[in-house]
Amino acid sequence: MKIFNHSSFMTFTLMGIPGLESQHLWLSVPFSSMFLAILLGNGTVLFLVATEPTLRTPMYLLLALLMVADLISTLALMPKLLCLFWFNDRDIAANACFTQMFFIHGASVVRSALLVAMAFDRFVAVCKPLRYNTILSHSLVGRLGLLALAKGVILILPMPLLLQRLTFCHIVIPHTYCDHMAVVKMACGHTRPNRIYGLFVILLVVGLDLLLIGFSYVLILQAVVRLNSQDAIFKALNTCSAHLFVILVTYAPALFSSVTHRIGHNIPPHAHILLANLYLLLPSMFNPIIYGIKMKEIQDKVNKCLCRGTS
Predict the structure, then answer these.
(1) pLDDT single digits (tens) 269-287
(2) What are the residues facing 172 on neighbouring strands?
(3) Which residues, 6 or more positions from 101, have their beta carbon under 8 angstroms from its beta carbon?
C-alpha cells in the first residue's frame, strides 16, 4: 500500500460524481445556471441593502450577512467544481483542499447561526414590536454577526488541523469537493478523533440551532394565539413566513442528505454526492428568491432600479 504523508507536496484527486463521469459536461449546465442565479440573486439583495437607506433595518442587515455567507460557501465550491466538469481538472493540493473544506463548512455553520439570530429578530418583531428598534440596535446586529463568524471559525478550524496530523493511504476522493468525512476516509490509521469531532459539530450546529429556532417559534405562536384580530394573526404569521421558508430550504436538504448517507445503503453513490452539492447550493439560490417574493420592500426597490434602467 502506498503511503502519502501530509507534509509532502501531496495532491488529492477529486473524482467528481461517481458513476456519472461521462456526464460531467452535461451536468455543468444546471450547476453553472445555479451558480449564475446565486451570484445574481445574492448580489442584488446585497446591492439593495447597501444602497437603500430604508433597507438598513436589523432584519435586512441580518439578511445581508446571510447572503454573504451564502456567497462565500458558493465561491468556495463552484470554481473548482466547474473546472472539474469543463476541463477535467481533478487535482487539488492538500492545503487548497483543507482551505476549501474550511470555507465550505465554516460558511454553513455561520449560515445556521445567522438563522438563529433571524429567529430572534422575528421573535422581537412579533412579541415586542414597540421595543423592536431599541432591542435590535445596529450594534447588537453587528455583535450577532461577529458571534456567528466566531462560531464558524472556532468549530470548523479544528477539522483541517486534525487532518494535517494524519497519513493518507488514498488520494482519490469520490466527491466534487473536499468534504470533511470524504477526506477522513482517505486516511489510514487512527481517525476516530476526526470522526467523533465531525459528529460533534453536526449535533451541536444542527441540533442546538434548530432547538433555539424552535424555542423562538413556540414563543411566537403563544403570542399569536393570544391575538384577538384575524388580521393581526395573519400579519404576525406573514412576518415570519419568509424566515420559515428559508429554514425549510436550509435544513431539509441537509437532514435528508445526512440520513441517506447513514442509512440509505441502497442509494447509489452519485445520488449521495448530488444531494451533498444541492444541500450547499439550494439555500444560496432560493434565499434571495424567497425574500424577493415575500418582502414588498425588496420588490419595490427592484422595480425602482429597473424603472431607472429603462428610463
Answers:
(1) 888 899 889 889 999 999 9
(2) 13
(3) 159, 160, 163, 177, 178, 179, 180, 183
